[in-house]
Write a structure and sequence with these properties.
This protein has 399 residues and is α/β, with parallel strands linked by helices. It has helices spanning 22-32, 57-69, 82-93, 109-124, 140-146, 166-173, 198-211, 228-231, 233-241, 272-289, 296-306, 308-335, 356-366, 386-398; strands at 39-40, 102-107, 129-134, 150-155, 157-158, 163-164, 181-185, 214-219, 245-250, 263-268, 349-351, 368-369, 375-377. Helix 7 (198-211) runs parallel beside helix 9 (233-241). The relative contact order is 0.17. Bound molecules: (2S)-2-hydroxybutanedioic acid. (2S)-2-hydroxybutanedioic acid (LMR) binds next to loops.
């Protein structure tokens, strides 16, 4: 006699619970806190001395031109705005801009570029392992897992001493095998602010090329560290040495168009024909996921970069954002010798050597909102919040 096993069909009510993305949850928590003197140094958005995240003047002008002159919103296709990618090309690739083995396309932010890059890798080599630094941006691991690639961690940062664990990093990457992926931060490391020096980049590039690893460089803050070219040093050095490189780029921060989702994905292979095939896969994956990227933000960036006067003014606004980031870093660093490391780091983030309990206590007692990991957005502080913030942090370090 046959035994019938009845398996109950699963429905939406059977879904397991999900842990909310910690950074997005933090935005909601900070917004809900009614205390007027709260300090939100959670998610990474630039703030000016008064604590605002203004729209760049050049973006406002470009948007006005768009309203005045745009005559259609007909589809552009899965590549998005091709001219946008062409204009970005020299800014990101520098002396590699004329290499026709490198192709790029517009994506919905840097996150879309990362997902698309990992989709491509999973299509080409589903058994590739991704070497992911600890710590890294909290959304890196979920994106990698979403395409079912395995993760190998490499040590990156020693939080207590504020230094890069460089020898450990190199040793771990040295255990990679041909076809494995090395996920690297181009500049302004998120969450630590600890960037590789030029010599360290040379060493990383050497290991990556010797081991035959595929580098995927996430560059979301170009221009926020030392300058546009300086911040692309690692990207360009990797392109000098490797035939296969993937780059996930974002304009969300350096054009301050966060919610408009403006990014790009770049793929280099050893030949123009292999690049064309890879890009055909990229376009297909993009079509499956979002069909085509949102236009508005990239169209505004396109207008800024196309117009020499607007472009020059963008550079001035970008420099002002960078100068503020570095000035806030110096002020925090000068407040206490235990915070001096913050003055030697770059970009929006640093990581304080605080336990989760200490972070939660600062949240509860002082209305200071930073990530549970101790990551804080340096430039989330308005000028008049810096002293209270550093005093509270020093107090927590001493407790
Ligand atoms: C961050 O790390 O705070 C930003 O990249 C925003 C995000 O999407 O997480």
């Amino acid at each position: 006699m046959l035994t019938q096993t009845q398996t109950k069909a699963k429905g939406l009510a059977d879904l397991p619970s999900v842990v909310n993305d910690s950074l997005l949850a933090l935005i909601a928590l900070a917004n809900a806190d009614p205390r007027p003197d709260k300090i939100d140094v959670g998610v990474g958005v630039f703030r000016d001395a008064a604590g605002n995240t203004p729209i760049l003047k050049v973006i406002k002008e470009a948007e006005q031109r768009l309203v005045d002159t745009q005559v259609t919103k007909a589809y552009l296709g899965s590549a998005g705005d091709k001219r946008f990618a062409e204009l970005l090309r020299p800014i990101l690739l520098g002396h590699h801009a004329s290499d026709d083995r490198i192709a790029g396309l517009q994506t919905p932010g840097g996150c879309g570029a990362l997902r698309l890059g990992f989709e491509l890798i999973a299509t080409a080599n589903p058994t590739a392992r991704v070497f992911l630094g600890t710590p890294s941006w909290p959304n890196h691991a979920p994106i990698i897992q979403s395409v079912r690639l395995g993760i190998e961690e490499y040590p990156y940062y020693e939080r207590g001493q504020g230094i890069i664990r460089f020898e450990d990093m190199i040793a771990a990457l040295g255990r990679g095998e041909a076809g494995d992926v090395a996920l690297l931060h181009g500049c302004c490391h998120n969450p630590t602010g600890a960037d590789l020096s030029e010599d360290q980049w040379r060493e990383v590039v050497r290991v990556v090329s010797e081991r035959g690893l595929l580098p995927l460089i996430d560059i979301a803050y170009q221009g926020f560290g030392r300058g546009l070219d300086e911040d692309a040093f690692g990207v360009r050095l990797m392109l000098d040495a490797c035939d296969e490189v993937i780059i996930a780029q974002s304009c969300d921060k350096n054009f301050s168009v966060y919610r408009d989702r403006v990014g790009s994905l770049w793929v280099k292979t050893g030949s123009t024909s292999a690049t064309a095939t890879a890009m055909a896969h990229v376009h297909q994956r993009a079509r499956e996921m979002w069909s085509m990227p949102p236009d508005h933000g990239a169209a505004a960036v396109h207008i800024v970069l196309e117009d020499s006067e607007l472009r020059a003014r963008w550079l001035v606004e970008l420099t002002a954002m960078r100068d503020r980031i570095n000035a806030v870093r110096q002020r925090i660093a000068a407040a206490d010798s235990r915070l001096a490391f913050i003055g030697r780091q770059f970009g929006m983030f640093s990581m304080l050597p605080l336990s989760k309990e200490q972070v939660l206590k600062l949240r509860h007692d002082e209305a200071i909102y930073m990530a549970d990991s101790g990551r804080f957005n340096v430039v989330g502080l308005s000028d008049d919040q810096i002293d209270r913030f550093t005093a509270a942090v020093v107090g927590a370090l001493e407790a």
